[in-house]
Amino acid sequence: MLHYHVSMRWLYLGGLLEHTVNMLNLVPAVCSNYPQIDQDLLATGVILHDIGKIEEYEYSCRIGVSD
Fold first, then answer.
1. Domain extent at residue 24
2. Which residues contact 28 (CB under 8 A, 6 or more apart)?
3. d(CA 4, CA 22)
4. Of 23, 24, 37, 47, which has the maximum CB count within 10 A?
């Protein structure tokens, strides 16, 4: 299993969502290589794993206008 330091994550607003979608896009390929894996269960695991990151990360949002 790969473990990433937080600095290697997508540290911008929407980055965790992008990461989650990218991981979900890999689920069919993983399941085609490992047919014994339940595709729905793997997708659920991806989502639940990243939901936990919402509490782990700190974030803020500031939207402004340019001059």
1. 10-56
2. 39
3. 16
4. 23
Residue 64 lies in a domain: no
**What's the pTM?**
0.71
Expressed in percent and rounded to 5, the helix, strand and coil fractions of the chain are: 60, 0, 40
Tell me the pLDDT tens digit for each residue of 9-58. 567 778 889 999 999 999 999 999 999 999 999 999 999 998 888 777 77
- Structure tokens that stand for 31 in this block: 């399941």
- Amino acid 15 reads G
Residue 46: is it exposed, middle or buried by C-beta count within 10 angstroms (0-12/13-18/19+)? Answer: buried
Count of structural domains within the chain: 1
